[in-house]
Design goal:
Elements lengths: L10 H30 L5 H8 L3 H7 L3 H8 L1 H15 L4 H18 L1 H8 L6 H23 L10 H10 L7 H19 L3 H4 L20
Helix pairs in contact: 1-2, 1-4, 5-6, 5-8, 6-7, 6-8, 6-10
């Protein structure tokens, strides 16, 4: 005898398929958000992210009710990496090397993903995990600065706003490929670090190789 429609055996499987679809949509949204934010920053409309993910706007808002929630989840791994970089530097017995390593690695992350820096510097009141990670990283950076100054390796007039200045300037570094952008970033940061140093040993040394950059890119970054 045929079972009543309400008790067809594969009904449970159908529900499971819907849950799998929901997970798949979530992963597609996050992947599209990371790629879009990395290329264009955080000002991209949510509708554009939905389009790139191949889902409806309603589906996106069902998974992520606010842009803050989407940014928090999209950059969770990068924030964890940033905090890990600071923790590793704090464990380094050489205060100048620890300070320098954090600056170099964070700036390279920024060159590869502009959206991450915007997320790090932007206060999202609804994004508690982001605020917590940012606060921890900022406290670690302040401690690295104190140690480097106490060791006489970092100039006494250095202030935390100088790090913001560096990130703002580094955000303007553009190149024709990700490899060239990273090379340009490393050389640019090396110049800044020499300016931050307190003594001859910190202000000298070979610079990373210079990338091939064309002046016309200053006026046409996409050329």
């Amino acid at each position: 005898m045929t079972a009543p429609p309400s008790r067809i055996p594969h009904a449970k499987g159908t529900a499971g398929g819907l849950r799998a679809d929901a997970r798949h949509n979530r992963e597609r949204i996050l992947a599209a958000a990371r790629d879009t934010f990395a290329a264009h920053g955080l000002d991209v409309p949510m509708a554009e992210i939905a389009r790139r993910a191949g889902v409806g706007v309603a589906t996106l808002y069902r998974r992520f009710p606010t842009k803050e929630a989407l940014v928090t989840e999209a950059f969770a791994e990068q924030f964890a990496t940033c905090v890990s970089v600071v923790d590793d530097a704090l464990a380094d017995p050489d205060p100048w090397r620890g300070f320098r390593t954090v600056i170099e690695r964070v700036c390279v992350m920024q060159a590869a993903d502009r959206g991450f820096t915007a997320a790090f510097l932007t206060a999202f009141p609804d994004a508690v995990p982001v605020d917590g990670e940012r606060a921890r990283a900022e406290q670690g950076l302040a401690e690295l600065v104190r140690r480097a100054k106490d060791a006489g390796r970092l100039r006494a007039d250095f202030v935390m706003d100088d790090l913001t200045l560096l990130l703002m300037a580094n955000n303007g570094v553009t190149a024709g490929s990700p490899e060239a952008a990273e090379a340009a970033c490393r050389r640019f940061v090396a110049y800044f670090l020499q300016a931050f140093g307190a003594g001859p040993a910190e202000r000298t040394g070979p610079l990373p190789p210079a990338p091939s950059l064309e002046l016309r890119r200053l006026f046409r970054p996409d050329a």
